[in-house]
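Thought: the user wants the 3D structure for the chain below. I'll pass the sequence to the structure tool as-is, report back what it returns, then summarize two notable features.
Action: structure_tool
Action Input:
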Amino acid sequence: MVATRKTGKTMNRREKPKPLPVKSRDWIEAECLKLAKQVRGAAGIQRVIIRRLRPIPGGPNWKAADVLPQPDLVLIGEVRAVLTDLPSLYALEDERT
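Observation:
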């Protein structure tokens, strides 16, 4: 058992993390676009394309791969920083049929 600092609650080391909510590619790309457009100067972004990853169990299974049209280098860094946490919040659904 390990006590966490902020909450003081104990947590079993073998306890599995909760599964991420599974979302479609279209939903995740729309969410990425919405967040990307909130960056100052990035209103011209029209599309964010995500790419599936082969994750370790429990890890993120996608990442933001491209932003179209490509903004300048300073702006793309800010956009990517905004999108950094999303893969740890949502899982990409299995598209194989």
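Final Answer: Structure generated. Residues 50 and 65 are 5 Å apart (CA to CA). Strands lie at 2-3, 10-11, 22-23, 47-52, 62-68, 91-92.
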